[in-house]
Amino acid sequence: MADLKYTRNIGIMAHIDAGKTTTSERILFYTGKSHKLGETHDGSATMDWMAQEQERGITITSAATTVFWEYAGNEYKVNLIDTPGHVDFTVEVERSLRVLDGAVALFCAVGGVQPQSETVWRQANKYQVPRIAFINKMDRVGADFFNVVGQIKEKLGATPLPLQIPIGQEESFKGVVDLVSNKAFVWTDDKGTAMEEVPIPEDLKDVVEEYRTALFEGAAEEEDALMEKFFEDPDSITEEEVIRMVRKATIEMRITPVMCGSAFKNKGVQRLLDGVMDFLPSPLDVEAVKGINPKTDKEEIRRPDAKEPFSALAFKIATDPFVGRIAFFRVYSGRLDSGSYVLNASTGKKERISRIMQMHSNKQNPIEFIEAGDIGAAVGFKEIKTGNTLCDEAHPIILESMSFPDPVISISVEPLTQADIEKMTMALIKLAEEDPTFTVKTDENSGQTIISGMGELHLDVLLDRMKREFKVECNQGRPQVAYKEAITSSVQHREVYKKQTGGRGKFADIIFEISPNEEGVKGLTFVNEVKGGNIPKEYIPAIEKGFKSCLDNGVLAGYPLEGFKVRIIDGSFHAVDSDALSFELCARIGFKEAARKANSILLEPIMSVEVETPDANVGDVTGDLNRRRGVLEGVDAKFGGQSVKAKVPLAEMFGYVTSLRTITSGRASSTMEYAYHAEAPKNIADEVIKNATK
């Protein structure tokens, strides 16, 4: 049985181009997993194994690997997940963070805290993931370590604690001062493997003293005995005691240790790995996972122990051309042997796990068994989806699943030839299984296949994968915005459903009130207030089912509703003619009638847009955003230019990257992510409804 004290399950998270994949590649190189340095820019990165990733130089799918690191006389096992930075693939970050114990948050020393850094930071807060910060690209022009530390505090509301001070910046960046040991080191070779101790530079002595005192004082505050030591003789506090206290505060998410380096120039990554072992939690440091026993509906816990009943969470499904479907899963308790059966508690069905793999990017190494605290991949199952709980049949448990954002953009697709219809359907089903933010449906009116996702790039990559992996060529329609509908007022309505067709008829009668949901509540809120058996209890679920089905089709233009509340007040039934189907149909018809009177409105997706542009182009950029119905939120000075923030309707943002290049001569860059849905202006809503009901 492995000692879990020496296991780390970590992810690398950051904004686009902060250097996540490059840092992962350096980790693989230093741990001996790969023998040459892979680079993102020339398409040779191990972790970016998809053809689309290598061509575009971006990470699309989170890649997992297992490496080993020798530190302080012990061998540590590290399960590492490299996540994408592009907002269209944010689901990959979300599901990875759900199963990780710790994370390394990367920040560019020039760009600082960027929009996607804020998004992944929020996701890590949501899943209570402790993290350490690594300020990368210290060798670039404009690098400013202390500025980024300030931004982590202001923009992310974190408490950054520098453990290193850089020696030099930009092209003169050559080493770091370690605040714990109070020693300075410089790199002496290109591979970053050789370091030499040097005296602390004179110009840094005051800064080092200031930050070191803050570090030791903070560590002393963690424990009374240390506080006494600190007041008597601060130098009597040992390095081990400081590391122990920083680790404790990091795991409790009160501080974020900060380190720095330049992954591309091979500087600082080994010390970052040491920091992962020193400060990030092992599976034993994380609270026991909680879940619900489906038989008793009571809460149970599972400790990270191989002797406990088996429980695991499937966090990703992938398709491999050679071995078929692969389920990535995190084991929280117990042990699973290759070839054994597990219960999928989410579906209630048994699954045989024919083989268990340890992943290295897109290559698999078969293993005989897997134990608590580890991350692996399963092959040979029938039906496992992202977020499903796998567990011991005798001790069922359902672990908390994951929530995913709704798609914001749709396009229609059709195969080039009739012969490809079946192939296209199969390809879309497989891609939708892998990606919970990608949905496929058939338009009832036109019969077209509509695919929806998180952005233009997201759908572009999925269509490219269909072409390459499934050999299906498609025609595609223009991108459509994923509008929603909402009701804004309360309406009471009576619906009587009667049908007489000779013999047994149909009869249902309900009096109900529909109203908007309370803020933050999604889906259907159903309240049954029928007294005295006026509607028999067995028909109530059918009424609820009828209203629930109305969530998919609003009355204005058939767009889905975020949610609404229904109160069933009264009604009646017929002893012979009433049945469950009658009440379900009655609810559906009644909703359509009532929703027309309840002031239905159209909601459009609003995006958070941030544009980094040279000073000379700020006026052109803000003017263009205003023309797109954008609401400016602020302009901040950034190194080499300005950062413009705005909220803009998605409908106005198609093709924005091309037009931004035109108005700034290719010198500006932008990021965009979904913020919320808001009521569309009347003229826009009328146009959308007119087009949808043609």
What gross morphology would you assign?
A: globular
Total DSSP helices? 16
Query: Main β-sheet: number of strands, strand sense, barrel status?
Result: 8 strands, antiparallel
- In spatial order, strands of the major sheet run 18-17-23-14-15-22-19-20
Describe this entry's structure for a reader.
This protein is of the alpha+beta class. It has 16 helices and 38 strands. The strands form eight sheets. An eight-stranded antiparallel sheet has the order 18-17-23-14-15-22-19-20. Helix 6 (205-220) runs antiparallel to helix 7 and helix 12 packs across helix 13. The protein is globular, with a radius of gyration of 28 Å. The termini are far apart. Mean pLDDT is 84; it is low at 35-60.
Concise synopsis of the structure shown:
The protein is an alpha+beta fold. It contains 16 helices and 38 strands. Helix 6 runs antiparallel to helix 7.
Question: How do the helices and strands line up, and which of them pair or pack?
Answer:
Elements: E1 7-13, H1 20-30, H2 51-56, E2 63-71, E3 74-82, H3 90-99, E4 102-108, H4 115-126, E5 131-136, H5 145-156, E6 160-162, E7 164-167, E8 175-178, E9 183-187, E10 195-198, H6 205-220, H7 224-232, H8 239-251, E11 256-260, H9 269-279, E12 289-292, E13 299-302, E14 311-320, E15 324-333, E16 335-337, E17 341-344, E18 349-352, E19 355-360, E20 363-367, E21 369-371, E22 375-379, E23 389-391, E24 398-399, E25 409-415, H10 421-434, E26 439-442, E27 449-453, H11 456-469, E28 474-476, E29 480-481, E30 484-487, E31 491-499, E32 506-515, E33 523-528, H12 540-549, E34 563-572, H13 580-597, E35 600-613, H14 618-627, E36 631-638, E37 641-649, H15 656-664, E38 669-679, H16 682-692
Parallel strand pairs: 1-3, 1-4, 4-5, 5-11, 6-11, 33-34
Antiparallel strand pairs: 2-3, 7-8, 8-9, 9-10, 12-13, 12-24, 14-15, 14-23, 15-22, 16-21, 17-18, 17-23, 19-20, 19-22, 25-27, 25-28, 25-29, 26-27, 30-35, 31-32, 32-34, 35-37, 35-38, 36-37
Helix pairs in contact: 6-7, 6-8, 12-13
